[in-house]
Structures are given as structure tokens and as C-alpha cells.
Amino acid sequence: xxxxxxxxxxxxxxxxxxxxxxxxxxxxxxxxxxxxxxxxxxxxxxxxxxxxxxxxxxxxxxxxxxxxxxxxxxxxxxxxxxxxxxxxxxxxxxxxxxxxxxxxxxxxxxxxxxxxxxxxxxxxxxxxxxxxxxxxxxxxxxxxxxxxxxxxxxxxxxxxxxxxxxxxxxxxxxxxxxxxxxxxxxxxxxxxxxxxxxxxxxxxxxxxxxxxxxxxxxxxxxxxxxxxxxxxxxxxxxxxxxxxxxxxxxxxxxxxxxxxxxxxxxxxxxxxxxxxxxxxxxxxxxxxxxxxxxxxxxxxxxxxxxxxxxxxxxxxxxxxxxxxxxxxxxxxxxxxxxxxxxxxxxxxxxxxxxxxxxxxxxxxxxxxxxxxxxxxxxxxxxxxxxxxxxxxxxxxxxxxxxxxxxxxxxxxxxxxxxxxxxxxxxxxxxxxxxxxxxxxxxxxxxxxxxxxxxxxxxxxxxxxxxxxxxxxxxxxxxxxxxxxxxxxxxxxxxxxxxxxxxxxxxxxxxxxxxxxxxxxxxxxxxxxxxxxxxxxxxxxxxxxxxxxxxxxxxxxxxxxxxxxxxxxxxxxxxxx
Length: 576
Ligand code: PEP
Ligand code: MG
Description:
The chain is 49% helix and 13% strand. By secondary structure, it is of the alpha/beta class. Helix 2 (66-83) packs across helix 6 (130-145) and helix 3 (86-97) packs across helix 4 (103-119).
């Protein structure tokens, strides 16, 4: 039956597909005892599920031909025999009727009994038949759990898969996306996690915090993942499917309309020009950034190179990646961020320290780079060499205090001297910037500005550290909110301080690409937004509808808000 599971939108879009569960155990069954009056209906359900399993086996046999059929038919015969085994069936009926077991729990109990019998056999062949028991029982349990009609199953067979999991690691997501994954429904996680960032960059719809997903969705259920409404519809109706088709048509039209903005300037309604930069890592992101008229790359996360690599990428490997980025942007400025490993980003080479009690507050970002000067210098040399091919600026993550920036500058100076001695071409002096994502850096930004050529506000981490709320923990949704007054005041302070010092300030956290926050950021004086390439046209479109002067006048009122609800309310009333 149709049911709707609410969650949080982590990556926009809609997808229709079959559920593929990643469940810690296949035998999650309801163990509460049955009431007497439920026995008959539950027995009926059990026998329907047994019939479905038999029918599935017959269908499977019909699809097989030739040598494969001969080989597999043997297993199908064994499974069919088991499904008709009188002892098994009587045992199941007794468990439900007399023991008041629910059908799923009865199947599990019978499975355990049979498995014990097979396991006790001396003959290894017979012993291995335990697997058949498992497979048969599994088939019945999933038929039991699946309240799916045959029509729906036929439709489901023609569509791709939607992953239903507790969480998904970024690497797994990248792999599955390459293999036709249509979307992700996660029962935990947050829109600010790195997996969510990756889903957005892959244009893969994703919901997080869908609490009951694993308990109520079953393998092969037809799912309509609707990230626009932040919900997953299980067993969608014809009406839902019509909505999905309407969304597809609209998305196509909207896509065409937005595409016409690719070469337009980014300008508010009253004529203020805004710079839109891209957060780009892959060649596809870079191509998309160009195609959508980005003014440059505002954030290139170099750690992705390390995360994909089995060991440490060599200087040449890094140089080639950075050079291709620079060449790919065809003369537009690119911002290469030095390694930000640590916390939830652990590399295979083992640079990121393991076993830290509090990794988010541990040796991550520039702290880690400075701990391994040889590794860091390899990266610096690669950046310097790549910078001969076009304009590059260097951004340093997790800066807490000025001496870190001074140390990085010194390492750049030393690397330049070495490269010069080796007669390798060197670029002009590179601009060195600080990520503002640690509260101390934001509060003490004026001292940092004495050493930084530019700033980039990383609101994903800044919010996490200001609010003491893990950016990946959905239980903290009500606290981890980009409109928290403390965060807004810090963002405003950093922007104003940068402007006073005459140094550029951009913002490259996820809110930079979220049109919900565009007006608020313009109001606080932000003139440089960096976001995933897929968001560029949406944000340009939003900016074109806004009046800059009117918004700037709202800044004092925004900064006076006492709660995020007040700020939300204020923003919802913006008409300019
Ligand atoms: C941020 O913290 O806002 C940011 C852009 O960096 P990352 O998401 O890579 O930690
Ligand atoms: Mg960060």
C-alpha cells in the first residue's frame, strides 16, 4: 500500500526506481506475538507469500535456456521441493497457529531449525544445502514483506535502482553512480555531509533522515524519490507517477530556460554585478563550470585526489590534475585549496590520523599538512608548476591562527627556491587565502587579514564549530541551521572586515549554492559566491530577481534576529 516517508532534501530532483536495501541483516522480522484473532489473516498472508515464491521460481525457469538452464534448473528444483516440503509447511503453520509467531518470525525459526540440521550433516555437499534453505526462506520473506502487485513489479523491472541505506560513504556513492544508481534514501545523515555534497555534484537526488526507510521499505518496492517535497513515496499511485512525469517535463523546460542564462552576466535587478564561482573537482564539474558561465573556480578540493588514490599521489600526478584544471578554465582564475584531510575524510595512505578521540577537533586541514611538511611540499610544488598555465590562487583550510598562514607562506617560498634551483618555470607571486571555518578565525579575522590576500568562508564547518553540532548528524537539524543568529553575525563580520581591508571575500559552503539563502547573503554584503557547478544557473536566476540596494538595507534587521526562526520569517517576507 502507498505510504510516504518524510526526510530532508540533500540533493534536488526526483527519481523513480526499485528499492535496493543495504541492510545489516536480511532477517529483520517482527517478533511480537500474534493476537488470536490475527492468526487466520496472517496464515493467509504466509501462504500467499509461499505461492508468490513458487510462481517466481516458475517464471525464473521459463526465462532460462540452453546450458545455463540445465545448470540452474537443478537449484530451482531443489528450491521448489523445499517450498513444497510438507514438514516445513506443517512446522510453519504450527508456529503461527499454536506458537502465535508472526509469519516472518515463523519463517526465521524454521530456517534456523533446518540450518542446524544441515550443519550437523557429515556430507559437505548436503551441508552446503543450508544455503538453499537461506535463499528459499529469503525469497518467501521478501515476498511476504512486499505488498507489491504484479503490475507494479513489472514496472519496477524496467526502472533502475534507488539505494535505501542508513548512510552511504562518498566512495560507494561514486561507484554506484557510475553503475546506474538513480537516487539515495538514507535513514540518517545530513544535507551538509560530504556524501550529500557529492550527490549534488553527481546530480543524484538524495534524501537523508528518512527514519523508517529501512524498516518499512523492502527490496524491489517501487519508490518515487521526491527530493522536491523531501519525501519518499513507497508504492506510488498513478497520480504520483503523473506528478513525476509532470516534474520531468517541467525540469526539461526549466533546464532550457536556465540554459539561456549560461552566457548572461550575474547581475541583480538594480544592476549590481556579482561574481559566481564554481566548486569543482572532476573534469565534468570543470566543463560544466565553463559551460554555465562561472567567473572562475572558487574551491577545488584537492583531498579528493588523495581519497581516490591507493597511496599518496606523486608530484607529477598532482601537477597534471591541477594543470588540467587550470587549462580547463581557459584563463579564468582558479582557487586550489590545499589538502583538507582528517575528520570524516580519511585517505588510504593513512596520513589522516586514526584513533583520535575527537577527529573533527583534531589534526585536520592545515594542521595535518604542517605535520607532514614533505607531503605538503610535494603538493605545493605541484601547485606552483601548474600555476604557470593560468591564474591560480591558493586557499588554506582550517586556519585557526595567523602563524599557520605564515608557515604555509614560508613553505611556498622554500618550494619556489628549490624549483628555481632545478630550473623549473615559476609563476608570478600567488595569492594566498584563508578559509574561515573555525570560529577563532572568524572572530580574529582582522589579524588574519594582515597575512591573507583573500578569504573564503566555509559555512559547512563554520556552522558545525560555532554551533557545536556535527554537520553530518541529523539529530541536530534544529540546531545546525544556517540562519542561526550567531552564524549570521560572524558571516557579516567577516565580509565587512574583508571589505574594510580591501580584500576579496567569497563563500564556498553549501549555502552559497542554495537559492533559499541567496537574498540573505546579498543582504549581508557578499559579492562572491562559490557553489557546485550544477547550481550556478539557479543562483544567477535568483540574483537577477533581487534588488541589491533594498536587500542591503535589510542587513541590520537580519543581524538583530534573536533566533533562526525569526531570521527565516524575515527572509520569507523578502519581496525585493
Ligand atoms: C566548508 O566547510 O564550508 C567547506 C567548503 O569545506 P568542506 O565542505 O570541504 O569541509
Ligand atoms: Mg570545511
